[in-house]
Amino acid sequence: MKRLLILLVILVAGLSLTAALDRLYSRNEYVRHQNNLELLTEKFQSVVMHSLTDLTAIGDLKAFLNARSDLPDRDAFDRFAGEAKRYYPTVTYFGYARESGESLYLHFTTGQPGSENDDRPGRLRALATVAEVRKMAISDPFYARDRLISIAVDPIYRDEALIGFAEVHFDVGAIFDQAMYNVGIDDQRYYIRIAAPEGRVFWEKGLIPEEGESLARKVHFPVGNAYWDATVSWKTSPDNNLYVRGIIWSSGCIVTLLLLVIINVVWQRQAWLTKQVDEKTAELILKNKAIIEAKEAQVRVEKLSSLGSMAAGVSHEINQPLNSIKILSSGILYSLHKGGRFNPDDIRKVVEEISRQADRISSIINQMRSFIRRDNSARVPCNVNDAVKQSLGLVGAQIMNHGVEVRQELSGNLPAVLVPPTALEEVLVNLLVNAMQALDKVERPEKQIIIRTRFEDGVVIEVADNGPGVSEEILDKVFEPFVTTHTGGDNWGLGLSIAHAIITACNGNIDVKTGERGTTFMIRIPAVAES
After folding, report:
1. Is residue 426 part of a domain?
2. Residue 216 and residue 190: Cα distance in Å, rounded?
């Protein structure tokens, strides 16, 4: 369910992002078309203004007329006008008129306009005032045969006297058509309208857009003493490139699909890895359990090995009370066979001694049993000197049988330490047996093991021997498991590692110093705080 929800979120996010990119592209296209409309309007205005103010045609006509002392004949004028028509397609009329406005020569290049809207003499006389001060102007627009016309005139002087006007009529609609062609305006998409300030429409082209479906830009054209308003409208919204939009949507869908596939594969891979990790973890737990059990078995073997070393001393310790019991019981049996009588006090003393010797045997057996089955679950206060004596009680006889003297230098009134039951005896037995085995390797007249106790920043126990010492090769790893300097199949090299683990668990530490005069193991354990 969780995976399905994540995949659904990725799908929605991918499609939403694709839709956002599509909207962004459409918006950019809209803005780009707005900018194009701005550029189109400005360019159209520039081309129209250039055409309206281009007086090359009337300049050529004036030069033709001024080139002669007398007026040219009509045929020459018509030839000039016919030739000029090829260069000036927007000119509809070439003419020459006297200063009174009377036409002398007229040549229509696009058909003769009607007279119902053509008040040309009146217009020329209206420009006479301007001509008298040697000025030229473009008249207000007017219609001639339903065509928008603009008149350009230029006065002609001879001997400082005004003799007439050179006159050219421009078809303003043709100028706008030429401008649209030069600019590249598509009249199927754009609509252009030219109107006077009061609203009269002179010229329009293109499909009229419906209200609310267009975006318009307005510019102004000065024409003579008048101003025209030009409106360029954008007929419809831009047609976005379907190819680009297709790429956007296809790419978005492909990326989203790839993400879904990748996430699904990663999820399955993660599930597989999790399963593998769980299986490996379970396998490692089993192996670790087996290792721990093996180590515990090795520790038990080490203890049994230590017990083997204790066997002689323990048998000696048990034989002594057994011999005492044998002697006492034999004496009583002998007296009974002889018919002797016993004093009750004497019998009580004998029985008490037998009981005491039996308790001694039981104590030795309990020490052996505790040594084998030590419980680390709790720590109890322990008297260090008592632990030393109990340890010597287990292995002291064996050490002496090896010809080693044991000396005790125990300080009195030492505070107790917290250790698991019999744990300290186990450590001391290991150290004493190691010292005994080290002394077995040397031939010296006096072999000694010295046990010292004192208080010095905690309770300190030292076990020192005058044996051969520990080699430098193994000194740094002497407390590691399976490291030993003794040969023989009954030594696993675990004694010192067990001792180190016990002392460390009691918040203490154990160090070793070695040299030619022997080896000293020093144990320091925190004392129990007095309550």
Report:
1. yes
2. 9
- Judged by DSSP in three states, 291 sits in helix
Is it the case that residue 400 has pLDDT exceeding 50? yes
Q: Write out the two tokens for 351.
A: 């029985």
**HSE, side-chain direction, 13 A CA sphere, residue 528:** 14
The answer to whether residue 527 scores a pLDDT higher than 80 is: yes
Whole-model pTM? 0.40
* Edge-to-edge strands, sheet with 405-410: 405-410, 448-455, 459-465, 518-525, 509-515
What confidence tier does 489 reach under pLDDT thresholds 50, 70, 90? very low
Q: Angle 2-52/172-183 helices, nearest 10 degrees?
A: 140
Exposure string for 172-210, b = 16+ CB within 10 A, e = fewer: bbbbbbbbbeebebeeebbbbbbeeeeeeebbeebeebe
Name, in order, each residue with C-beta under 8 angstroms of 258's C-beta and a sequence gap of 6 or more: none
Q: Specify the amino acid at residue 144.
A: A
CATH number of the domain within which 364 lies: 3.30.565.10
Q: 305 and 158, same structural domain?
A: no
Determine the length of the chain: 531
Tens digits of residue pLDDT in 163-189:
777 888 888 778 888 888 887 777 777
Residue 483, domain member (yes or no): yes
Residues forming beta bridges with residue 190, ordered by sequence position: 234
Q: What is the rounded distance in angstroms from the CA atom of residue 192 to the CA atom of residue 99?
A: 39
pLDDT digits over 68-80, tens only? 777 777 888 888 8
Burial zone of 320 (CB within 10 Å; 0-12 exposed, 13-18 middle, 19+ buried): middle
The residue assigned the tokens 């005492």 is 324
Q: 353 and 324 in contact (C-beta within 8 Å)?
A: yes
Nearest Cα to Cα of residue 221 among 41, 19, 57, 66: 41
- Considering 158, 184, 210, which residue would you say is the last residue of a domain? 184
| Distance separating alpha carbons of residues 90 and 87, to the nearest angstrom | 9
Q: Which residues constitute the domain of residue 437?
A: 291-525
Residue with tokens 């679950």: 377
Contacts of 486 by beta carbon, 8 Å cutoff, 6+ apart: 434, 437, 438
* pLDDT reading at 517 higher than 70: yes
For the chain, how many structural domains are there in total? 2
In a domain, 222, yes or no: no
Q: Which amino acid is at 425?
A: E
Sign of CA dihedral 266, 269, 271, 276: negative
Question: Does 337 lie in the same domain as 473?
Answer: yes
> What letter represents residue 324's amino acid?
S
Alpha carbon 205 to its chain centroid, in Å, reads 60
Half-sphere exposure in the Cβ direction for 366 (13 Å, CA):
8
Cβ atoms 65, 71 nearer than 8 A: yes
**How many Å apart are CA 451 and CA 457, to the nearest integer?**
18
Q: Given a cut of 60, is residue 25 above it in pLDDT?
A: yes
CB 191 within 8 A of CB 205: yes
